[in-house]
Amino acid sequence: GTPVAAAHVAGVASLLLAQDPSRTPPQIKSILESTAEDQVGDPAEDTPGWDQYYGHGRINAYYALGGQVGLREPARTEESISVFPNPAMKEFNVSFPGDAQIIQLVNSIGQVIDTKHLNQQTSTNLKVDEAGIFLVRMIMSNGLIVTKKIMIND
């Protein structure tokens, strides 16, 4: 139950901090929420996304520490970003709130393949040289990490 889960969450949070000491508490929370395995309980109680019985789902240390990061979007976000066209042919546009600080493009095995530091911009173009499914990761000024999937075709 909850007492055991709290210890597991604290353990994975400490591993995330050890992996990158510059991570903020909101970033760690966002990583834990976005990599949890949703809908693992009784279907009558465990609804998609956050619910009162199972929260965001079962913690997954492997995903949280980078083992297939980029394949699952968070169930909910507090900020919104728009990626278009999606699917795209190598080049696409991303629009976002003005308080976004960093935008990253992450491949399906969790590698950051492009990073842009933003200066109060509200949109930017990104280009990918290979086909596949990618994550556009936006780091907001409050530390929140917002993600959006994009498919790149040949």
Which fold name corresponds to the CATH topology of the largest domain?
A: Immunoglobulin-like
Give unreliable regions as ranges.
68-78
Rounded to the nearest angstrom, the distance between the terminal CA atoms is 47 Å
| Percentage of β-strand residues | 25-35%
User: How many domains make up the 3D coordinates?
Assistant: 2
Strand segment count: 7
| Largest sheet: number of strands, sense, barrel closure | 4 strands, antiparallel
* Mean pLDDT across all amino acids: 82
Please state the CA-atom Rg, rounded to the nearest Å: 16 Å
Task: Please identify the top-level CATH class of the largest domain.
Answer: Mainly Beta
Widest sheet: strand ordering: 4-3-6-7
How would you describe this structure to a colleague?
The chain has 154 residues and is an alpha+beta fold. The chain folds into 2 domains: 2-64, no CATH class; 82-152, Sandwich (Immunoglobulin-like), CATH 2.60.40. It is built from 3 helices and 7 strands; from the N terminus they run H-H-H-E-E-E-E-E-E-E. It has helices at residues 2-19, 25-35, 61-64, and strands spanning 82-89, 91-95, 100-106, 112-117, 123-127, 132-140, 145-152. It has a 4-stranded antiparallel beta sheet. A 3-stranded antiparallel beta sheet has the order 1-2-5, with no helix packed on it. Strand 3 and strand 4 form a beta hairpin. The longest helix is centred in the N-terminal third of the chain and has 18 residues, at 2-19. Mean pLDDT is 82; it is low at 68-78.
